[in-house]
Input
Amino acid sequence: MAEPKSNELMEKIVSLCKRRGFIFQSSEIYGGINGFWDYGPLGAEIKRNVKELWWNTMTRMRDDVVGLEATIIMHPQIWRASGHVDTFSDPMCDCKFCGKRFRADQIEPQSGVAYIYSGAESQLDDVESNLNDRLLAAADEAIKASEHVDIVRLKAASEEMVAITVVTAKLRPKISARAAASDALDAVLRPFEALQKLLSTSDSNLDRQEAARLNTLIKATIRKHYYCDEPTRVLLRKGEHPDTARKKARAFYERRKYYLPKLRKEEVEPVENSVGFCPDDGGELTSPQPFNLMFKTHYGPIESDENIAYLRPETAQAIFAQFRNVFDSSRQKVPFGIAQTGKAFRNEVTPRNYTFRSREFEQMELEFFIKPDEAIEAITGSVTKVPETGHPGEPQPSWGWQAWHQYWVEERVRFYEGIGLSRETLGFHRQTAEELAHYARACVDILFKFPFSKRDEKGELLGEELEGIAARSDFDLSQHERFSGKPMGVFDEELRAAWGKLDDAKKAELSKGYYEARLKYLTKSGVEQAKAEKDAKEDADGLAKGHYIPHVIEPSAGVDRLILALICNAFTEVTDTDDKGKSETRVILKFHPRVAPVKVGIMPLLKNKPDIVKKALEVRDLLRPWMNVFYDDGGSIGRRYARQDEAGTPYCLTIDFDTLGEKPELLNTVTIRHRDDGKQERLPISELQAWLLARIR
Ligand code: GAP
Output
């Protein structure tokens, strides 16, 4: 079949996910909530499988990684130390016309003609203009009355002002009359009340200067109701009529409560590839402002600035914060890792591409702590050089950060291959020096070629990030040491002993390298130069005695993105044609058996044959403790296979008359049907468990 276009394909995937119970919109019955997704019965199973496979691969199958399960809400200081409070933000702009919010770095550049207006004024018809003059006259009269301490005149002028303001407001049918009346009254009466107050507290004539000031204020507030000096601009795309710009600009001023606004000074200007206009309606965008992505809350019974807390935007920081506890309690030595999976929250400005960018999601993160290269060189004589690609093999004591980084990139690719994402479906992005954070040595993103990914000039999908593997130096632990005042370093006896055997030139060279790296970190983190130099010197002296803050390699993956990748990768449409030539297109989800939500469908050939049903239930009960099975006795066998294909079930077992011994040589055997090619084979029930476990684990 011809490949469907990416949008069409995503629509089919989204619809299948809902229909078959993989993914639902969160709070759907209330209209949904943008950026939040729920996993249905099949989705919940695949999610568990993915997390368990990651956990087993990263911790249980290794001696050098241990696990952690930390809280979502942690001490707010953690997010100051990590830099999230100050810098975890996206640049964001708002459309001044429709109010929509956009990530400034994701706005598509636009071209056209900009219509520019210097402001607007409310159009006063004769009646309203007359009322306006009367209002100003009444304000003057009020001032004079107050100067002469003439309460009767002041009261009359005041009543006149109130009456005129109410009538004026009623003449503005577009704005809710009540709201406008109260706004206008408020604006005019506030300075007027001040005047009255002044009068009531004064036993002599009013201070002339003060009276004049209030007079000006009253006039200014009245003027403000009619004239707007705020300029604006709107972009017209090719083919749009200039009246469209005028209509939009008038609506812009009306929303600012200027009745029947007359636009002031129209100018036009050609625009090429500008990101300053709303992609939806061409309205002017505000300049980009940083928008912190962390969700804020409060802990304890009082909502104040003292008890602000954040929902964690990543699981990694708890690992750093608990590094000492894990190190002291787990008998691990550097190099070793701490792994954690769990929820993370980011108030993304524009959640998009289904679950790809959500506001609540799950991460699977490993922080793998290693010795600084200077320590490796002191211990082993030199740091192993590795080529930038390819697996560097089994870990060696002489590995520095580059080898470990390369090792983890390749290990993670192996993981993806092991669950059905071949190398061809993946892409790689090595961050450039400009993209890297100041403390990072390298970062490689593993991409998956989603149907919605951008394409290169040849039309090939480029891919979107599934996981980032970063070499983060000793930044994270150093930050927590500085912010908490608690030591985050380790003592390494091997290093201390090796250092003693180095000649002076080598000692000086390694000390210098370590000193310079520490100094760079400290000065970049804002530590004052003299103190930074002193601290860096102490750190270099510490290295010579076997002390250092471990460096870290961080493979950080998203569960939800991986599940979406697995579903996109598995989605296959096939067209079957029956004997009468009628064709039907159906979906097979070709999941790797390890991640498939249901491992095996168990099907009695006929549901009205008690002996067959009894045997099928026995097989179900035999396998159920080991894997997720689905018992299905409804409809023809063909229909039942098709249903399981759509759910991605890799194997179906049929219990038939031969199972019961109709052909004696087939007694207690079942038919196994393979999802991807429909091939069938016969297996003894006694071998089923081992046969299946070998394929699904
Ligand atoms: N501790 C490093 C860290 O959090 P990241 O690149 O911001 O790095 C790691 O996130 C992974 O988490 C990403 O590669 C992605 O798989 C997942 N992720 C990040 N933001 C996400 C979002 N808004 N929705 C879904 N997954 C997200």
